[in-house]
Amino acid sequence: MLCYTEHMEICKLCLSKFKDYQQRNRNRCGSCNTKIRRFRAKAAAVKYLGGKCERCGWSGNQAALQFHHKDSKGKEFTIGNVANKSWDSIKLEMQKCILLCANCHSIEHSTKNDKNFLKEALDYKGRTLKF
Q1: How far apart are CA 26 and CA 23, in angstroms?
Q2: Cβ count within 10 A of residue 101
Q3: Which residue, among 78, 60, 67, has the nearest Cα to 100 in the 3D structure?
Q4: Which residues are CB-neighbours of 99 under 8 A, at least 6 positions away?
Q5: pLDDT tens digits, 40-61
Q6: How many CB atoms lie within 10 A of CB 77?
Q7: 66 pairs with which residues across the strands?
Q8: For the chain, how far is it from start to end, CA to CA, in angstroms?
Q9: What is the pTM of this model?
Q10: Distance (Å, whole) CA 53 – CA 62
């Protein structure tokens, strides 16, 4: 009879219980290992693309740096979420991208920064909001 409580370990990062199926004396669960691989892949990709926002020059926590595909049609995968891709395939995908901070990336994708929209919004004569 198979016992599911044998070889149970506690993850040193998230403190959840996990089964060490291969009995390799692991100290992290699979979820935490995946998060670490994703973090390391993104850190390498950020460094490869210069480590700062291409628009404003901001550099800081990699959580606020994002990969903007210059042509979204050519996008094969999201670089910031890769855990099991080869470095060569990540580099191929990065050649389609520029590195932007979260602010510049939001502005890049905003539909509210078009000149016609801004003119219309500023000229709007409807009810104004009072603070």
Answers
A1: 8
A2: 20
A3: 67
A4: 46, 49, 50, 51, 52, 53, 54, 65, 66, 67, 68
A5: 989 999 999 999 999 999 999 9
A6: 11
A7: 100
A8: 70
A9: 0.73
A10: 11
